[in-house]
Every structure is written in structure tokens, then in C-alpha cells.
């Protein structure tokens, strides 16, 4: 008889009369805290002011929360929030979209880079995506702790039964699939930066990040249950439709990066990545 993993972990770490601390919130915050320490290391290695990391952190926190929330509102439930706009502020009730966070971060970093003569837009984003990949891993683990964003039924031995969400059959733990992929992506991006940063054309890491992450996101969505009701009638769900322009954008970034690198002579050549 097949045995599966019964997932019955409480989403709350602890709760009192006045406050509830959840795993998702803790892992979300850890993404910023650990990412900040990685940026401190990167900025020290490249001779940039560490005080800029603190400024970047503020940009990142605001952009991630606002972008992810508005992304969910606009892409997944626009009519519901149009009827009850005050609900947009109720972030604690859930509803954050990674595609919205990506747009928010890219825009915020554009505003940041405009004020820094020694840090071009592509230079900044190339370093940020390293930390974003790690944060993505932690956020997906938070989804696992919430017993949400899981996949279709499976009889593979690592199938999860999410009993807290009322499930009685094993499902693909797509949160773990995405978390592991983000971890591999983080290690890959950090390794490229660490070994080739002096010869890496600006925009290379951003292009790799966009293409790799959203190609995987497009594919893993085939295993997921619909997140909102209107996706039941769609050939490709909203996550997949939003991933396509992100992948195309990544390809365009690599093309621009390669052209700029050839002009300056700053390009990785004959290097095995």
C-alpha cells in the first residue's frame, strides 16, 4: 500500500490575545534580512558604500509588498477589490503575486539607480536578483506552511495530503518544487557573480534570472490547482500568461547586454558557467 506525506503543520508559530506570528510572515521577513546581509557582502567586495544597501532595502521592501499586492489585485481578483477597495489594504488576509512583485522591484530599482552615478540600472538589478532568488525559496516554503498553492493529485511517493486545507488525496507539493528551483537559481547566480563579476556584462544575471525563473514557473503551473475560479476555463492560467512576457523580457535583456558588452569589451568569453 502506498504511503504519502500527511501535512498537518499549523501556519501559526504562536498566537496570543494581541498578536499572531505566522511561518509565512517570518520566512518573508527572513528573505529581506538574509538578502540584506548578502548585499552587504557584495557591496564590500565591489567597493560600494554599505550605506547604500540600507537604502536599497527600503526600496525593496516597499516595492515587493506594494507590487505583489497590486499584482494580485489587478491580475487575479480585480472585480472583487473594485467592489471592496478597502480590502486591498488587508494584506494579512493573503493575496500576493510574484509577477507583481517583479514589476514593482524592477521599477523601484530604476528610481534608485537614477540617483547613483556609480551604479547603473543593470548593475544594481544583477546584484538584487541574486537575493530575490533566495527570497523566492523562503516565500514558497511559507506557502507550504500555509498549505496553499499546491498541485494536482499525484501517486508519487512524495505526494502531500494537505489536511488543514481539507484535502484527503495526495497532491504535488509544488511549493517545494519551486523552493528547490529558487535555491538552485540562487546558487547559480551567486556563483557566476563570485567567479566572473569583473568580466560579467551588465544585465547577464538579470536575463538569466528572468528566463530561468519564469520558464520554470510556466512549466510548474501545469501541475498546480487553479488559484482563482476564472482559471478553470483557461487553456493557460494567469501565472503562465504573465510568465511569457517575463521570459521574452529576459531574452531582450540578454540581447541588449551582449551588444553593450561588445562595445565595451567587457564580456565573458570562453568561460564555462
From TrEMBL:
The lineage of its organism: Bacteria, Pseudomonadati, Bacteroidota, Cytophagia, Cytophagales. InterPro entries: Lgt. GO terms for biological process: lipoprotein biosynthetic process. It is found in: Cell membrane. This is Phosphatidylglycerol--prolipoprotein diacylglyceryl transferase. Pfam families: LGT. Catalyzes the transfer of the diacylglyceryl group from phosphatidylglycerol to the sulfhydryl group of the N-terminal cysteine of a prolipoprotein, the first step in the formation of mature lipoproteins. A 1,2-diacyl-sn-glycero-3-phospho-(1'-sn-glycerol) binds at residue 140.
Amino acid at each position: 500500500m502506498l504511503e504519502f506525506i500527511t501535512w498537518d503543520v499549523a501556519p501559526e508559530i504562536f498566537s496570543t490575545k494581541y498578536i499572531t506570528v505566522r511561518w509565512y510572515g517570518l520566512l518573508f521577513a527572513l528573505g529581506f534580512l538574509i538578502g540584506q546581509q548578502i548585499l552587504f557582502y557584495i557591496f564590500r567586495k565591489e567597493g560600494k558604500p554599505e550605506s547604500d544597501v540600507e537604502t536599497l532595502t527600503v526600496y525593496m521592501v516597499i516595492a515587493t509588498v506594494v507590487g505583489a499586492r497590486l499584482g494580485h489585485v489587478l491580475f487575479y481578483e480585480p472585480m472583487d477589490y473594485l467592489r471592496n477597495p478597502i480590502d486591498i489594504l488587508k494584506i494579512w488576509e493573503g493575496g500576493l503575486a510574484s509577477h507583481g512583485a517583479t514589476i514593482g522591484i524592477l521599477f523601484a530599482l530604476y528610481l534608485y539607480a537614477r540617483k547613483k552615478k556609480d551604479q547603473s540600472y543593470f548593475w544594481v538589478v544583477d546584484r538584487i536578483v541574486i537575493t530575490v532568488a533566495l527570497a523566492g525559496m523562503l516565500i514558497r516554503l511559507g506557502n507550504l506552511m500555509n498549505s496553499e498553492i499546491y498541485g494536482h493529485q499525484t501517486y508519487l511517493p512524495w505526494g502531500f495530503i494537505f489536511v488543514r486545507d481539507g484535502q484527503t488525496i495526495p497532491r504535488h507539493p509544488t511549493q517545494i518544487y519551486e523552493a528547490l528551483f529558487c535555491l538552485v537559481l540562487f546558487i547559480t547566480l551567486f556563483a557566476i557573480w563570485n567567479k566572473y563579476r569583473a568580466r560579467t556584462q551588465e544585465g547577464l544575471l538579470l536575463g538569466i534570472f528572468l528566463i530561468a525563473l519564469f520558464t520554470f514557473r510556466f512549466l510548474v503551473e501545469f501541475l498546480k490547482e487553479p488559484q482563482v475560479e476564472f482559471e478553470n476555463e483557461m487553456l493557460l492560467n494567469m501565472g503562465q500568461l504573465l510568465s511569457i512576457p517575463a521570459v521574452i523580457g529576459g531574452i531582450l535583456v540578454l540581447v541588449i547586454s551582449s551588444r553593450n558588452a561588445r562595445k565595451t569589451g567587457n564580456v565573458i568569453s570562453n568561460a564555462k558557467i
